[in-house]
Amino acid sequence: MTKLWGGRFSGEKMDPKVLDFTSSLCVDKELAEYDCLSNKVQVEMLAKCGFISSAEEKKFLKVLNELLVEIQENRLKLVECEDIHSLIQDYVEERLPLLAAKLHTGRSRNEQVVNDVRLYCKDKITSIISLIAALQKKLVLKAETMTDVIVPGYTHLNRAQPVLFSHLLMGYIEMLERDAGRLKDAFARLDVSVMGSGALAGSALELDRKFIAKKMGFKKISANSIDAVSDRDFILEFVSGLCLVAVHLSRMSEDFILYTTAEFGFLEIDPVYCTGSSLMPQKQNPDVLELIRGKSSLVIGALNSLFVLLKGLPHSYNRDLQEDKKPLFESVNTVMAELEIFSGVVDSIQ
Ligand code: ARG
Prior knowledge:
Blueprint: H1 16-22, H2 25-28, H3 32-48, H4 54-72, H5 84-95, H6 109-144, E1 150-155, E2 158-164, H7 165-190, E3 192-193, H8 209-216, E4 220-221, H9 225-230, H10 233-260, H11 287-310, H12 325-348
Parallel strand pairs: 3-4
Antiparallel strand pairs: 1-2
Helix pairs in contact: 3-4, 3-8, 4-5, 6-7, 6-12, 7-10, 10-11, 10-12, 11-12
């Protein structure tokens, strides 16, 4: 397949080792659906602004709709490619060889990648906020069943005053409420369309930026193209919100780990969240809670990676920015899994 940027090169093949080193497909394949939906909007905008005919628009949309189904049914073939944006461009080129190049009219991958990641973040923040709400509900329901359970309340990990166990559980709800609030704030700030920024300097073509933003569901459009293609603040904000969720879940897990030990001995969790030992059959190890505690380090590490990635990076787009996705996706997947599994643990406590 011809490279999107292949025009100035004389057709020599990319060294497979270089392709392997520079390709981000194994990571950014997660953006496939967002990229496909964005391509559909791009096609509609190009037709609206007269860059393609309505017959061409129809041809593009047919192929992109087929692609969308393949993505949703997990059937998209991941052939060797630089990234998901190139893969999708190649997919269209294979089916519409004479037309495909028009798809990228007035557009750069530098803005495309930011656009897709913003759509991804909006989607995931919405899901994570629902998972937080579901966990809060589980905590309230559990607290309601425990309004007569008195346990030691600790300061300095020394017995301090007797408290209701429900008092502690309701405290967790407050922590999670603040987490949801931070994620909502991050959502509001990242709800911006950057399309039209081009590689860094906008486009000489009369593209309809407002149309794209509206169709993709963005509240605003970005004001400065140089900033728009190099800004990753929104990822850092989102991941720092996730760090706090992970840290909170880690602290709650630590409480439960302590309280289920023989030394404390006033809490039980369902054995499905534990493992045993063949050598020491008396043991019930709270592995799931330990892993929630342990995996928070991954999310904190991801935030640190992102800060280091941005620090010292000149404007505007640099390929370094490709490395933003792995820490983002890993943090999102980790926190989502933790929220779901911790909800189950809460359900099971006695
Ligand atoms: N895969 C790239 C990334 O994630 C897309 C942008 C490529 N742009 C470029 N000028 N090479 O950042």
